Amino acid sequence: MISKFPKVAIIVPIYNVENYLERCLQSLQKQTHQNLLIVLINDGSTDQSKEIAQRYVQTDSRFMLIDQQNGGLSHARNKGLSFLEGKLSSSYPPPPIEIDFLSFVDSDDYLECDCIEKSLLELQRHQAQIVCFGINRCEENGAKIRSDFGIFEQVSKNQVLDGAEVLKQTRKNYFHSV
User: Fold this and answer.
1) pTM of the model
2) Mean pLDDT lowest for which of 76-80, 91-95, 150-154?
3) For 129-138, which contacts have Cβ atoms below 8 Å and span 24 or more sequence positions?
4) Which CATH superfamily is domain 8-111 in?
5) Which of 73, 86, 109, 128 could potentially form a cystine with 94 if both were Cys, beta carbons 3.0 to 4.6 Å apart?
6) Where are the domains of the chain?
7) Phi and psi at residue 55, to the nearest 5°
8) Is the pLDDT of residue 5 over 70?
């Protein structure tokens, strides 16, 4: 059973996304589920991305920023995981509390305001360990181009799969998200 107010950590790798980052971080800040720790990993950005991230850290205690030399997307995500596990050097404080759930959000994406809340409800309703959901591809102005559900396009909406079926679907289809 999921506690009423589970703590959700969201890792956001950042690299030269100044045109998209504000919308991404606003969408995280406005989540209806507020018990969040949002770990921003600046992966050596050379544009204004770091400064945008710092504004959120300064005004919202749920945000924290880890700065590193450019190492790529996977390295940035792994740095966030290392932080949550308390494995970074003493220059970074340990995470403030235990984390119940983890999510990754790309810095050029944004979430609907109730995405985390709905995901937690589905986890609880099905006693699941993971929730997957589709995406809407949008124009720069926000107009929806199309919806995409990745590897699970053949799966009915709200269908619950066991681990073996997820692995089978993953092997059969291209999987484009973490």
Assistant:
1) 0.84
2) 150-154
3) 130/166, 135/109
4) Spore Coat Polysaccharide Biosynthesis Protein SpsA; Chain A (3.90.550.10)
5) 86
6) 8-111, 132-178
7) -60, -40
8) yes
